Amino acid sequence: MDGAMKDRTRAFLERAGRWRYALLVAAAGLLLLLWPAGGSGQENSAEGAEEARLASLLEAMEGVGRTQVRLSENGAAVVCQGADSPTVRLDVTEAMRCYTGLGSDRIVIFKMNESWREQS
Hints:
The protein is of the alpha+beta class. The protein has five helices and three strands; from the N terminus they run αααββαβα. It is 59% helix and 12% strand. The protein has a three-stranded mixed beta sheet. It is rod-shaped and about 90 Å long. The protein starts with a helix and ends with a helix.
């Protein structure tokens, strides 16, 4: 580089040095805006995996039959074939309570629709 180019580069870097903190904050803000939003894919897949594990556990219990489980921050819903039996409902509630830590008042159990079972 020739001398004039070096002088211009040096002058530019000196002027930019005055604004380095503002540029650093702006760059950090831009990175935060571009950062992927939390809770999108991985949480949903982890929640789906937990629901599948719970359904598998419940299906292994006597009398429960085919099962679907949905979890939320407010509670849990279980749909199973054996929900018409009070013993099964109690067993499912106890298993869900032990596994999730939810109170029995936040766990609901429904009888599986026979026509839905035939479709799947």
